[in-house]
Amino acid sequence: MRISDISPFVRNAMLINFKVRQKYGIAGDSRLFYTYEDYTVHIDGTTYNIGAGSVVIVPAGVKYFFEHSGVVNMLTINFDYTESASHITEPKPPRAPEMFSESKITERPDFEDYPFLNSPIVLENMQKLRLQFEKIVREFEYKKPFYREVAASVHKQVIFEIIRLMLPGSKSNAIVNSALEYIHAHYAEDIDNESVAAHVGYHSYYLNRVMKAVLGTTLRQYIIDYRLEIAKRHLQQTGLSISAIAELSGYRNLCNFSVDFKKKTGMTPSKYRELS
Question: What is the pTM of this model?
Answer without folding.
Answer: 0.65
